[in-house]
Specification:
By secondary structure, the protein is an alpha+beta fold. The chain has a domain of about 100 residues: Cadherins (Immunoglobulin-like, Sandwich). The chain has four helices and seven strands. A hairpin with a 4-residue loop joins strand 6 and strand 7. The protein starts with a helix and ends in a 40-residue tail after the last strand. About 10% of the residues are buried. One of its GO terms (molecular function) is calcium ion binding. Pfam families: Cadherin_2.
Length: about 150
Amino acid sequence: RQVLILFLVLGVALAGWESRRYSVMEETESGSSVANLAKDLGLGVGELAARGARVVSEDNKPHLQLDLQTGELILNEKLDREEMCGPTDPCVMHFQVLLKKPLGVFRAELLVRDINDHSPEFPEREMTLKILEASPLGTMFPLKKAQDLDVGT
């Protein structure tokens, strides 16, 4: 009986630990809405303010804010995927929504999706190719590989 109660308590406690997932394109304008947290958490808009809700990111930087009047999760700044995560893919920012009175913690993550905002760059600005006049049609001439900060193809 005690084991059954222990599993029941653990199950209820862990049920609230499932992370909510959101997604945004990098370079989205500051002030843009990511999601309606009040709706996603099943809370009334007034309840967020009454319970002292706030958003805390893993790196303690104010990337996101919660509008207590509307329940909207809003971008505080443009996010640069390459600056945040470098070549790591996917780029995920973890954060929590903290509620006081009664205490509640909701984990969430924001996937910052890449846009093609960097041009490929070659290691050298200029390259000299010496091509013989007698080269057959369709001959290929390899170039040094260009570097691109964007992820993917």
